[in-house]
Amino acid sequence: MSSYDFDLFVIGAGSGGVRASRMAAAMGAKVAVAEERHLGGTCVNIGCVPKKLMVYASHFAEEFEDAAGFGWTVGPRNFDWSTLIANKNCEITRLNGIYERLLTDAGVEIVEGRAVLEGPHSVVVAGRRITAKYILIATGGLPVRPTEPGQELGIVSDDVFFLEKQPERLLVAGGGYIAVEFAGVFAGLGSKVTQLYRGDLFLRGFDDDLRKALAAEMPKKHVDLRFKTIIEWTVKTSNGLLAELSGGQTLEVDQILYAIGRRPNTAALGLEAAGVAVDGKGGIVVDAHFRTSVPSIYALGDVTNRVQLTPVALAEGMAVAKTLFGGQPTSVDYADIPTAVFSQPPIGTVGLSEAVARKLYGAVDIYRSSFRPMKHTLSGRDETTMMKLVVERQTQRVVGAHMLGPDAAEIVQGLGIALKAGATKQVFDATIGIHPTAAEEFVTMRERLPDPEEAKAAE
Ligand code: FAD
Ligand code: NDP
């Protein structure tokens, strides 16, 4: 008989914490999970799910416009922000209930409140001391706030889902996933959006052709993109917020959304008391099996500050459960993780960018295609889809697949399987397309782009 209250105590009922709790309980462990806010964590409450609902909402404006070319007359249109937020809140409450049932049906005890570590086997939640053989830290991340004067007048992504009023004029600071997604959402909903990025081109780390293609598309959808620009300071005015930008221009808006990254949520968690080591950026350091510097304490998901994606946290949760209670030490393979940016148009991408592949393999073959989606031949919309394959020349293995265009996320999920299976360009070529689709382009691209090195040598 164990001398601990639980076999596993999980701190945080987000994507990773819930998965680890349920799986560990299913494997016979006695499990409890502490949650200080809402079951489901960031993804369900203030992340992926409400964000995607808002992306859907924002698409209707274009759909109504595009319908005309197909013979439809669409009557007067009006968007009501409070209806969207109320319906979104209803759906999130439904999901919170599902998470509660999933946990309780699995036999997991839910402990409401903030958990703080006391030692290698003990935590305190709302004055209750609880011991466990293993503790799993799955506390996620928090938005970073900038430091410039007046930054407190702006909001972060946590707030954007609960705004009482849709800002008529929105300034978005940042050039990562969250900034481009919300710039697209609010522009689609009719706000006047300006997006600032501090560098030459946003979405650092993504394939350069994707970055350039999205930068060319967003202004067509009325996002005023300004690169090499930051906010110097902000003050309140009688009409809203006045921001001075680098270069001296000023901009008056109703709201400023800072989307400049997220940091691990570890403050006042008792890490020092328990002896859990963190890295230079505050991420909890773990080994290949998610064990921290304290042998009985594990950590996963955003708090480890590595790949901040829900499916990754889920895979890590599964791995922790198998390692601790399945008799199967399990790690996660981080290669070829497909990901999407729900920008407008969206990005779907898996594997290596051209730049990284060239560094890694030297010679690569590039196949790229840009075209107007079939739908827009009648709608008249000026929008370009871009698809690209990066192929390691020597083995002909496809090491990167990238798309900007409608349904990119849905299409690239399937390509993720092909890359994981090590498919070569010949396998792509031997695959019959589905016609008429955009996706078929991925199996019909035959002309490789001129190699920059060969072109230089030929000069
Ligand atoms: P979280 O889901 O953040 O869960 C942590 C939980 O721990 C929270 O519920 C928190 O309240 C709780 N907690 C923290 N400290 C304590 C404590 N001391 N005691 C008790 N409870 C505590 N990923 C995708 O894959 N696709 C997307 O489309 C996507 N969109 C996103 C959009 C936004 C705006 C944001 C912010 C993120 C998005 N992400 C997306 C990322 C995704 O949400 C995260 O990677 C994922 O939620 C991480 O899961 P986690 O389990 O590590 O932490
Ligand atoms: P990201 O790390 O993706 O991007 C942060 C952006 O802010 C970068 O453009 C960065 O620029 C810029 N930045 C950083 N510091 C400053 C500063 N002080 N001033 C101005 N700009 C700054 O973070 P996000 O907040 O967008 O998202 C966090 C993570 O959440 C993502 O990385 C992703 O893993 C996850 N997520 C996933 C989504 C999805 O799957 N669709 C959607 C939303 C979030 P630079 O590049 O120059 O450093």
Description:
It is a single chain. The protein has helices spanning 15-26, 41-46, 48-67, 81-105, 157-160, 177-188, 208-217, 271-274, 310-325, 354-361, 375-379, 408-420, 425-430, 452-458, and strands at 6-11, 31-35, 109-112, 115-119, 122-125, 128-137, 141-143, 155-156, 169-173, 192-197, 223-227, 231-237, 240-245, 250-253, 255-258, 262-264, 297-299, 339-341, 347-351, 364-371, 385-392, 398-404. The protein has 459 residues and is an alpha/beta fold. The chain folds into three domains: 6-141 and 263-325, FAD/NAD(P)-binding domain (3-Layer(bba) Sandwich), CATH 3.50.50.60; 151-260, FAD/NAD(P)-binding domain (3-Layer(bba) Sandwich), CATH 3.50.50.60; 339-458, FAD/NAD-linked reductase, C-terminal dimerisation domain (Enolase-like, domain 1, 2-Layer Sandwich), CATH 3.30.390. Helix 6 (177-188) links the parallel strand 9 (169-173) and strand 10 (192-197). The chain binds flavin-adenine dinucleotide and NADPH dihydro-nicotinamide-adenine-dinucleotide phosphate (NDP). Residues 146, 173-179, 181, 197-199, 202, 204, 230, 259-262, 308-309, 339-342 line the site of NADPH dihydro-nicotinamide-adenine-dinucleotide phosphate.
